[in-house]
Amino acid sequence: METTCLEPVVAKSLTSGLSEPLAVMAARAACALELSLKRFVLAGEQNLGHLELQAARDVQELLRQALERGAQAKADGTPPLCPVCQQKLTRLSAGHPRSFESRYGTITVKRTRGYCKRCRKWRVPADTALGLEESAGYSPAVQDMAALLASKMPVGEASAVLEHLTGVKLPPATLDREARRQGERAREVRRKLDEQACEQGQAPDQPELVLEPYQMIIQMDAWNIRERDQWGKTKALRREGKEPERWHWVYTGTCFRLDHRGKTAGGRPLISERGFVATREGMEGLREQLHAEALRRGLGQAAGALVIADGAVWIWRLADDRFKDARQRLDFYHAVQHLAAVGRAMFGEDKDKLKGWLRPLVRQLKNQSSLKVIQQLEEILEGLPAGVAAQAVQKEVNYFHEHRDRLDYRNGRQRGEPIGSGAIESTCRQAQCRFKRPGQFWSQAGDESLLCLETFWRNDRWHLLFPHTSFNPARN
Ligand SMILES: [Zn+2]
């Protein structure tokens, strides 16, 4: 290796206040790399991983400087207009420094501040141009990493993983704060997107693209989450005879086009595109968010819609309210469980008898008329003497009567539609894995913002929060 390396005089030039051209810094970084290569070759105990770390470190200051200079030049070139209303700012003053944690270290930018008479607010247009305005001092890449990691794992772990993978140090409390700030921003973006979806409403976006009529499948479910909103008040509440409530419902929904459902090469069911909603804002929150999501996914252009869910009353009420033209279907598995309850009332613990009775009935429910199944249950009820068993069967007969218009499994199967709500149940299981880890507690305000981040990620809309993530530098 024949190289003439520059002397490491970085410190001197920096303390003198003069900044070196990037080309000189790059040459210096290249020399550091050359040296690292030589050391690496000689170090018997080091593998390529050691060099990967060392090389990143050798160029880090170059990258940090490049970032800082780029940020400063962009700030200097930003016109003094209000980023909200585009009004010209007055009472301008330049040189306001602010430091940000970036992917490659701390950078400081001097910005111009001005007053917007229309908004009656002080504005720093450069912060908006750089994507720094809605952060406590983190660059967009760091905001993105904090938000993503905190929505995927507990913050203590997220902080350690972040530092391990990128070298960026964010203590758990700081990471938590930044993630929640980004989550709050996500909620605002979601609110606007939902408004837009409802305004466009039933009007087809690109009607010519709908070649074949399709059905929209909608599924809903709820699970509970543990929160610490009343922590520290337990004793006081108990004195008043109240039990502190720590479990709260998370309402979840999913929607997809039937023609987007297929199978993997291995034969496993797969839905190529589907919308996902999870909220702590009650049934009303789910109703509005799921409706907007379904519209975005093509509800307006669908030939029809189908709601599939378990027997919970709130779901059918919500469906009648917001998806009133949709057909309704009771989850097949839940229906079978209610048939089994009739069997248990008749045969008690005799499992063989129960199975022998249940099997043909399940087959009938699935492939033939559900009305015939209900008829058989009624006949059983008539033959039973008054008592506990008759009461139990009566309850189930009532259940099937209540859902009689939701039991058309035969036609559903013939049309290739799902008869179970498996899609939403697996979704809930996954979400619970994240939000119900042992020892994890959430606050009421915080978990909605984290759930919101999670839905942006799952719905493939992360780039609407962090536009740089859809940018491909190779094609720039
Ligand atoms: Zn303004």
Structure, briefly:
Helix content is 52%, strand content 15%. It has 476 residues and is of the alpha+beta class.
- Please estimate the helix content: 40-55%
Distance between the termini: 33 Å
What would you report as the Rg, rounded to the nearest angstrom?
30 Å
In the sheet with the most strands, the strands line up as: 8-5-4-9-10
H-E order: HHHEEEHHHHEHEEEEHEHEHHHHHHHH
Strand content: 15-25%
Molecular structure report:
The protein has a 5-stranded mixed β-sheet, sandwiched between helices. It has a 3-stranded antiparallel β-sheet with strand order 1-2-3. Strands 6-7 form a two-stranded antiparallel sheet. By secondary structure, it is of the alpha+beta class. It has 18 helices and 10 strands. Helix 6 crosses helix 7. The structure holds zinc ion (ZN).
Sum up the structure in keywords.
476 residues, three-stranded antiparallel β-sheet, 10 strands
Write the SSE topology.
Layout: H1 10-15, H2 22-42, H3 48-77, E1 90-102, E2 105-116, E3 121-123, H4 125-130, H5 140-152, H6 155-166, H7 172-200, E4 215-226, H8 234-239, E5 247-257, E6 261-263, E7 269-271, E8 275-279, H9 282-296, E9 304-309, H10 313-322, E10 327-330, H11 332-347, H12 351-367, H13 370-383, H14 388-402, H15 409-414, H16 422-435, H17 444-458, H18 462-465
Parallel strand pairs: 4-9, 9-10
Antiparallel strand pairs: 1-2, 2-3, 4-5, 5-8, 6-7
Helix pairs in contact: 2-3, 5-6, 5-7, 5-17, 6-7, 7-9, 7-17, 9-10, 11-12, 11-14, 13-14
Zinc ion binds next to loops.
